[in-house]
Amino acid sequence: MSDQPDRVLVTGISGFLGGHVALQLLAQGYTVRGSLRSLERAEKVRKTLAAHGADTARLEFVALDLLADKGWAEAMSGVRYLQHVASPFVLEMPRDKNDLIRPAVEGTRRAVTAAFTAGVERVVVTSSIAAIAYGHDDYSRTFTTADWTNPDSPKVSAYAESKLRAEREAWAVADRFGARDRLATINPGAILGPLLDEDVGTSGLLVQRLLNGSIPAAPKMSFSIIDVRDVAAAQVAAMTAPTAGGKRHILADREMSLFELATALRAALPQVAGRAPRFELPNWVVRLIGLFDPQIGSNTAELGHVRRVDGNSGRLLLARPTIPGPDAAVATARSLVAQRLVA
Length: 343
Hints:
Shape: globular
Helix content: 25-40%
Strand order of the largest sheet: 3-2-1-4-5-7-10
Distance between the termini: 45 Å
Order of helices and strands: EHEHEHEHEEHEEHEHEEHHHEHH
CATH architecture of the domain at 7-193 and 224-256 and 308-324: 3-Layer(aba) Sandwich
Number of strands: 12
Structural class: alpha/beta
Oligomer: single chain
Radius of gyration: 20 Å
CATH topology of the domain at 7-193 and 224-256 and 308-324: Rossmann fold
């Protein structure tokens, strides 16, 4: 690097992954410009990152809204790389799926368009395996970066469709600028790992519910787990790796069931995880409950599926093995204890 550190715009810096991306960028000497919907949160983010060892002298903030044009061009001034991490996520699926899809797609369009208009060297967009491996009938095969989620399937949630359409939009914008080789997407599985603050978020909530007894018995659902530190490292590596541009990169360790997660938590933290589920629920019981609980009902299509994805592209980007899924879950649990979010 030169005497003037390269500046990276990180959208969604106050989020779980965005915070970890900022931490790794600052540790590597970059200047980080973080976007927030409101600058009222800036000091909180600064203190959180500082508490984890970041040199916040190279941290600055800008107010940006995924659904408004204001400020995007100015935010790209002096920026060499864009990390577009911000994307809406809800704990319960909205009645109108476009409440989730619209900000995801429009936010991605604004961010990527502004970056390429400003001549940003490379754009890294956080996508998901939800844009790859959902809405298919054959789960006996392994999904790769060549696969795309089928939005026409009734099994596809609003969240999965939002990730699919947002990533498609990123590639479409890159093609309009003739800049496909300057875009890389990171497609992680379910992101676990250490929380940076007391904001449980969607990632910590699953582990918190396993620990506090909110899930007394485990539905037969599985997730491709990945540690947030690996995802952040891949995001940063994709900025400068010569071969990363123009490609999708899957980040996933292996598929783990809820019951496996609970078992791993009990083994590592028996004093905390005593209330984690000790048996699995039959699928018919979960479907019956889903008739009365919309949140459970919206996920019953996933019962019994083991979705395998090929994470070699992500491991090549990292140039090392990924953190094992059970370790990521335990790291989440330890941070929940440290933040006094579980007893």
